Amino acid sequence: MPKIKAVLFDLDNTLIDFMSMKKESCKAAISAMILAGLKMEKDRAFKLLFELYEKHGIENQRIFQKFLRKANKKIDYKVLASAIVAYRRYQAGVLKPYKNVIPVLSGLKKKGIKTAIVSDAPKMRAWIRLVEMGIENYFDVVVCFEDTKERKPSRLPFEKAINSLNLKPEDCIMVGDWPERDIAGAKALGMKTVFARYGSSKGDADADYKIDDIKELLRIV
């Protein structure tokens, strides 16, 4: 394998346990809504909320408004505010990188390897997560949805990152948890790939490498 000059990372479920954070934050929001007057059993509310996420996107900014319209045919702003405050408070308390992420990022820098983020998340959401976790200064390039208006596996987000690093696809390796987006998209462009098995709930991937802990990446590059 040619010498790797840069590692590109997906963000959610690759560097951070995003879905666990999302689920627990939503449970906190639902409990707060019920305390504020929502007449719905917790399990049913959770199921409905994630059906709406499935339909409108996991990053939808108005998901609680959509939830209340679906559940109550109207928005009770006391209930809405309770949901938003509880969600934000809980998220701030639990959002953290996977174990070994910071040592790995530091190790890559010591080796002189550049690093980048290639995420489908909205730019502000991605940066907030990076800053909350204290890893915002480890990356040479951060590419988010607004940068190309395309989501992986489109080649455009990968090309944007690679070009910003002044490198070629064969100089880079992509680390991600989503086979159809992160792995397939990077392979189609000619990059080497690492499947973050520890963060995936989407089956196996046809990747060059598969890891169960991000610390294994240092042995690959």
Short description:
The protein is of the alpha/beta class and 221 residues long. It has two domains: 6-17 and 97-220, 3-Layer(aba) Sandwich (Rossmann fold); 19-94, DNA polymerase, domain 1, CATH 1.10.150.520. The chain has helices at 18-35, 42-56, 63-72, 77-94, 101-110, 123-133, 145-148, 155-164, 179-188, 217-220; strands spanning 6-9, 114-118, 141-143, 172-176, 192-196, 209-211.
Describe this structure in words.
- The structure is a single chain.
- The protein is α/β, with parallel strands linked by helices and 221 residues long.
- It has helices at 18-35, 42-56, 63-72, 77-94, 101-110, 123-133, 145-148, 155-164, 179-188, 217-220, and strands spanning 6-9, 114-118, 141-143, 172-176, 192-196, 209-211.
- α1 packs antiparallel against α4 (77-94) and α2 (42-56) packs across α3 (63-72).
- The chain has two domains: 6-17 and 97-220, Rossmann fold (3-Layer(aba) Sandwich), CATH 3.40.50; 19-94, DNA polymerase, domain 1.
- The termini are close together.
Order of helices and strands: EHHHHHEHEHHEHEEH
Instruction: Pick out the low-confidence regions.
Output: none
> What is the highest CATH level, the class of the largest domain?
Alpha Beta
CATH superfamily of the largest domain: HAD superfamily/HAD-like
Number of helices: 10
